[in-house]
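Attaching the record inline, Q. Sequence:
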Amino acid sequence: MIKGEKGFTLIETILSLSILVILLGLVLSSLRLGQSSWERGEGAVVEAASRRFVVKRFSEDIGSMYLYSELQNGNKEYLLNAGEKEFGFVTVNRAGTAGFTWGGARLVSYFAGEEGLTVRERTLPQVSEDPSLGERLTLLAPEVEKVIFEYLGEGGWVNTWSIKKEGRLPVAVRAEFSFNGDKSQLVVTAPVGVTSTVSSKSGTKTLALLPGVRN
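Structure, as predicted:
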């Protein structure tokens, strides 16, 4: 050191390093905050896209619902399982039929399984006597942990629906989806097909279905 020049004292050096560490900490915290915000934003976009897909697929399947019956042990049975936690029905919607031999209709069943919102489906008419053959499960939304179905009739919304009791399909179906770690719920109300009339022994009834009922 040249005589007469003054250097940094130990205290000044320590103070400068402390300030530098604080500034670096602030910069890193800002970067982490920005990254976290970006990840949350990206997650929200993915979540919104998933919910839109569920709404579209569910609404289209319900909108194309078809009153379909099969002979089982000599009796005509309608393929409709309208419960509170699972809803099975026949639809002529072709969405999601990739890899299926299209027979004109699909038997689908929506429910919330252990892995999330799932659809069980198979092509109709059934070729094999074993209904499990040609059947597949499709996971639609893993973030869905619960779904509750309701059905609209003349008396309002009910938790179950029977063709034998009501003599027709419901006017609309409502599904309430609950999500993992999210208190918010998604409620989808979908009208059933179009209005048509069929004749029965007790008279003419107006049914919410597509033309061309299979007897």
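The helical segments are 10-63, 163-166. The longest strand covers residues 144-153.

More tomorrow.
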